[in-house]
């Protein structure tokens, strides 16, 4: 793990760090100093090093003066992720990454999903990026609170999510429904309450596999007007997540207005 924000977030969450390499300038930075002392008291080895040493350790990555050695990322079981998601809200949103191989894309998806309010991520074990130091760096600390399940069979995982009453929406360039026309609610529910949602994002080159597409309830596309034929996977994920939550925010505001109107009507009654 490297970079100021990821390591700072790990320190603030008292994550077990085996060793920290840090420049002398950053070690006495007010944001880090007390946390570094606390980590040292908890058994973390603190090495004060020159930037060149950090260049060697991180293979010349953008380390920003600090790196840390941590245990492999602790993935969560899918069943536990589902349970945890429903403990947070009646209508959780979980992102499924279908074969995302670029760690920068995966990190950006995690950062966006956590920031906007999603409850977790599911990734396949094979032919896809796992949680690497690059993913942690790009995620900018989001992984300290954002659970990730890594599954052997992605389609069986999607079946399990369906069994838990999630509606599954897949992003595809040839999707049958433009994103801005989709209502992310149960079409049979006149009250249009939020529903549990799985958003499936495809790989950078091939998109969603045909097997994954068949597991989706709805395929959505993002209309493009320019000459560029497709979007980066993390950008597409961010746009789709924003639309899901935009609709929820609008519905919440609408309900609030209705309640206020009802209160005013009741107050005016004699």
Automatic annotation (TrEMBL):
It comes from the Bacteria. CDD domains: SpoU-like_RlmB. Transmembrane segments: none annotated. Pfam families: SpoU_methylase (PF00588), SpoU_sub_bind (PF08032). Residues 2-76 form the RNA 2-O ribose methyltransferase substrate binding domain. One of its GO terms (molecular function) is RNA binding. The keyword Methyltransferase applies. InterPro entries: Alpha/beta_knot_MTases, Ribosomal_eL30-like_sf, rRNA_MeTrfase_TrmH, SpoU_MeTrfase, SpoU_subst-bd, tRNA_m1G_MTases_N. Keywords: Methyltransferase, Transferase. The keyword Cytoplasm does not apply. One of its GO terms (biological process) is methylation. One of its GO terms (cellular component) is cytosol. Belongs to the class IV-like SAM-binding methyltransferase superfamily. RNA methyltransferase TrmH family. NCBIfam families: rRNA_methyl_3. This is 23S rRNA (Guanosine(2251)-2'-O)-methyltransferase RlmB. It comes from Hassallia byssoidea VB512170.
């Amino acid at each position: 793990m490297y970079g100021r924000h990821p390591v700072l977030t790990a320190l603030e969450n008292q994550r077990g760090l085996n060793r920290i390499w840090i420049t002398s300038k950053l070690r006495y930075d007010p944001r880090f100093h007390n946390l570094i002392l606390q980590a040292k008291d908890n058994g973390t080895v603190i090495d004060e090093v020159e930037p060149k040493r950090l260049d060697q350790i991180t293979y010349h990555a953008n380390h920003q003066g600090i790196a840390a050695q941590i245990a492999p990322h602790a993935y969560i079981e899918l069943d536990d992720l589902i349970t945890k998601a429903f403990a947070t809200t009646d209508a959780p949103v979980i992102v499924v990454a279908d074969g995302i191989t670029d760690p920068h894309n995966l990190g950006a998806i995690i950062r966006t999903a956590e920031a906007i309010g999603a409850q977790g991520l599911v990734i396949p074990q094979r032919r896809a990026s796992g949680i690497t130091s690059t993913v942690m760096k790009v995620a900018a600390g989001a992984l300290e609170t954002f659970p990730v399940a890594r599954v052997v069979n992605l389609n069986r995982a999607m079946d399990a999510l369906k069994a838990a009453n999630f509606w599954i929406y897949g992003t595809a360039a040839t999707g049958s429904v433009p994103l801005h026309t989709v209502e992310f609610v149960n079409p049979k529910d006149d009250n249009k309450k939020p529903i549990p949602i799985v958003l499936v994002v495809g790989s950078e080159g091939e998109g969603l596999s045909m097997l994954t597409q068949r597991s989706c309830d709805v395929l959505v596309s993002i209309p493009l007007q320019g000459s560029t034929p497709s979007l980066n996977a993390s950008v597409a994920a961010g746009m789709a997540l924003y639309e899901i939550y935009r609709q929820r925010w609008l519905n919440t505001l609408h309900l609030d207005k209705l309640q206020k109107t009802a209160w005013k009507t009741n107050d005016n009654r004699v």
